[in-house]
């Protein structure tokens, strides 16, 4: 309680729980994207079938691995950092990261025209980032923590 008798926000308040859920999903996606990126760049160590590149503009998995780092891992890391530090730009970063995750999966379907069982889960995770960002910043100016 504060001196005026009001309860101060705590780590257990709904907004705080939502913020930490958002950070958790963003970090999970960032770590997964880093793992996938390294696996693709390092001679496709994660064993994605090379025939999935047929009909795409890529002759190896190196560029897709770099793009995965730039399009998913970096935005998710920046967004999670912004949320933890309660930066003014955290909402925008989280929305951008969630949209980038969704875009990454849609681009996979359009470019490779292949279905992999993780794609719907990763698409859903991107949507969860968007929804958690909205819920976390609901009632704020969306630029202030």
List keywords for this structure.
disordered N terminus; 145 residues; 4 helices
Question: What layout of secondary structure does this protein have?
Answer:
Blueprint: H1 14-41, H2 62-84, H3 90-112, H4 118-137
Helix pairs in contact: 1-2, 1-4, 2-3, 3-4
Question: Helix/strand/pairing class, anyone?
Answer: mainly alpha
The count of domains is 1
Shape: elongated
Overall pLDDT metric: 90
Q: Helical element count?
A: 4
Major sheet: size, sense and barrel closure? none
| First-residue to last-residue Cα separation | 20 Å
| Helix and strand sequence | HHHH
Task: Give the helix proportion (percent range).
Answer: 55-70%
Alpha carbon gyration radius:
18 Å
Number of strands: 0
Name the beta content range. Answer: under 5%
Low-confidence stretches: 1-11
Descriptive account of the structure:
The chain contains four helices and no strands. The protein has 145 residues and is mainly α. Helix 2 (62-84) packs antiparallel against helix 3. The longest helix is centred in the first third of the chain and has 28 residues, at 14-41. The model is unreliable at 1-11 (pLDDT under 50).
Write a concise synopsis of the structure shown.
The protein is mainly α.
């Amino acid at each position: 309680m504060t001196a005026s008798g009001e309860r101060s926000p705590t780590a257990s308040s709904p907004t705080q729980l939502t913020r930490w859920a958002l950070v958790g999903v963003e970090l999970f996606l960032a770590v997964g994207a880093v793992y996938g990126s390294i696996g693709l760049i390092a001679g496709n160590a994660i064993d994605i079938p090379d025939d999935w590149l047929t009909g795409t503009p890529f002759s190896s998995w190196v560029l897709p691995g770099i793009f995965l780092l730039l399009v998913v891992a970096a935005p998710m890391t920046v967004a999670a950092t912004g949320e933890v530090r309660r930066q003014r730009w955290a909402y925008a970063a989280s929305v951008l990261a969630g949209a980038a995750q969704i875009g990454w999966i849609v681009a996979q379907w359009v470019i490779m025209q292949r279905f992999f069982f993780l794609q719907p889960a990763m698409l859903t995770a991107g949507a969860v980032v968007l929804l958690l960002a909205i819920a976390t910043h609901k009632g704020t100016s969306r630029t202030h923590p």
